[in-house]
């Protein structure tokens, strides 16, 4: 079968023939319909330092998907052939204190599909049933294929009460853009989204941002003044991984405000800690999605009117994956989908 493989320890990705997966006990075989390219996949494509330290070669990559179950392994009872499924890319140990307490997103031994073990950019993949999410088939497949990053956005945005609050989102990547739509649905008053990329800020507007700020041209403070915001944002969602963006956020917060950090900062990031101390800010790190409360919430939000369609900007057949990665690298895209039909 066909798969997109990190074949060599160098930049690039290769369309290869790989062996058909064996369906082990407790696994389900999924025939892929649509997969989506994540920023992580672009890191692996580019073969940056993190990828060199993390990714075994050769390996099929990819972790965002929707597909149809075509076979179930021994012991699988609740998922059946024909079901439309997506799945959690984090495989957890099931034995540590957090796993036993039902806080599986905090497992100390998490492994990533398409990162530490075989991924799903393939015609078929066999996945532990404990990671499978049974989809509502009335939700469009393009949307189902991005449940993983939508889940990052939902997990981060719903960390704090948003009803009537003013929300600052730094970073209008696909996840920041989706967070704007979620904040809107959750009843936020003002949703201000920052980036340095106008294409992406336009998408954020379509997804419900009250105002967008290109911080290369305008300050967050000037937009706060326009909106009549005197004391700062109640909630901050850091979704850029950029040090300047994080520091801008700290400066724009209401005293006692709450910040959820999803963006992955580099080692060079520095923060004026006394602003956190004296302004009484709360910081919460976010990893992955809550299993499976986040999946439940995103399904329910979509069923009750959340519309994230504008974030999906490109669709390619998997054989044209190079085009998909190029457009992701250009920054002139939201989510890019690869079609396996
Ligand atoms: P992305 O890289 O597509 O988006 C980041 C955006 O930040 C870009 O549009 C970029 O132009 C913008 N940006 C750069 N400098 C900025 C500045 N000074 N101010 C405001 N914005 C600025 O990323 P994504 O896929 O949307 O993911 C968002 C972040 O979350 C990334 O850092 C990613 O690595 C991280 N992430 C974390 C988890 C987790 O589990 N913690 C999971 C997925 C992604
Ligand atoms: Zn665990």
From TrEMBL:
Keyword DNA repair assigned: no
Q: Which domain of life is it from?
A: Bacteria
Q: Where is this site: Important for catalytic activity for the proton relay mechanism but does not participate directly in the coordination of zinc atom?
A: 148
Cofactor remark from the record: Binds 2 Zn(2+) ions per subunit.
Which positions bind Zn(2+) 1?
38, 63-64
Q: Where in the cell is it found?
A: Cytoplasm
Single GO BP term: L-threonine catabolic process to glycine
Q: Where does Zn(2+) 2 bind?
A: 93, 96, 99, 107
Q: Which cofactor does it need?
A: Zn(2+)
- Every Enoyl reductase (ER) domain range: 12-338
Q: Which UniProt keywords apply?
A: Cytoplasm, Metal-binding, NAD, Oxidoreductase, Zinc
Q: What is its EC number?
A: 1.1.1.103
The protein's annotated catalytic reaction(s) are: L-threonine + NAD(+) = (2S)-2-amino-3-oxobutanoate + NADH + H(+)
User: Got a GO cellular component term for this one?
Assistant: cytoplasm
Where are the active-site residues found? 40, 43
Q: Which GO terms describe its molecular function?
A: L-threonine 3-dehydrogenase activity; zinc ion binding
Q: What class of enzyme is it?
A: oxidoreductase
Q: In which pathway does it act?
A: Amino-acid degradation; L-threonine degradation via oxydo-reductase pathway; glycine from L-threonine: step 1/2
* Complex and partners: Homotetramer.
Family, according to the entry, reads as follows: Belongs to the zinc-containing alcohol dehydrogenase family.
What the protein does? Catalyzes the NAD(+)-dependent oxidation of L-threonine to 2-amino-3-ketobutyrate.
Q: What is this protein called?
A: L-threonine 3-dehydrogenase
Please tell me the species this chain comes from.
Answer: Anaeromicrobium sediminis
């Amino acid at each position: 079968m066909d798969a997109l493989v990190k074949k060599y320890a160098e930049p690039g990705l290769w369309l290869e023939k790989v062996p058909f997966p064996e369906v082990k006990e407790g696994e389900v075989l999924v025939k892929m319909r649509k997969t989506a390219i994540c920023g992580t996949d672009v890191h692996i494509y580019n073969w940056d330092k993190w990828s060199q330290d993390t990714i075994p070669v050769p390996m099929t990559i990819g972790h965002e998907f929707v597909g149809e179950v075509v076979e179930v392994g021994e012991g699988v009872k609740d998922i059946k052939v024909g079901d439309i499924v997506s799945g959690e890319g984090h495989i957890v140990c099931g034995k540590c204190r957090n796993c036993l307490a039902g806080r599986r997103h905090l497992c100390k031994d998490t492994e990533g599909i398409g990162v530490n073990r075989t991924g799903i950019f393939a015609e078929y993949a066999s996945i532990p049933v404990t990671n499978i999410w049974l989809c509502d088939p009335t939700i469009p497949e393009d949307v189902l294929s991005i449940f993983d990053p939508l889940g990052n956005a939902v997990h981060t945005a719903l960390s704090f009460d948003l009803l009537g609050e003013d929300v600052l989102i730094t970073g209008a990547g696909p996840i920041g853009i989706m967070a704007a739509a979620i904040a809107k649905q959750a009843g936020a008053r003002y949703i201000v989204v920052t980036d340095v990329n106008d294409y992406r800020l336009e998408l954020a507007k379509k997804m419900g941002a009250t105002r967008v700020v290109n911080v290369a041209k305008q300050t967050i403070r000037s937009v706060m003044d326009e909106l009549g915001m005197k004391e700062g944002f109640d909630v901050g969602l850091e979704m850029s991984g950029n040090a300047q963006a994080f520091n801008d956020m700290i400066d724009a917060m209401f005293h006692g405000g709450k910040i959820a950090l999803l963006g992955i900062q580099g080692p060079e990031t520095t923060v004026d800690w006394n602003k956190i101390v004296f302004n009484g800010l709360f910081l919460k790190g976010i990893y992955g999605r809550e299993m499976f409360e986040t999946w439940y919430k995103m399904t329910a939000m979509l069923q009750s009117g959340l519309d994230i369609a504008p974030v999906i900007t490109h669709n390619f057949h998997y054989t044209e994956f190079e085009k998909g990665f190029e457009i992701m690298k250009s920054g002139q895209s939201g989510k890019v989908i690869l079609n396996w039909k």
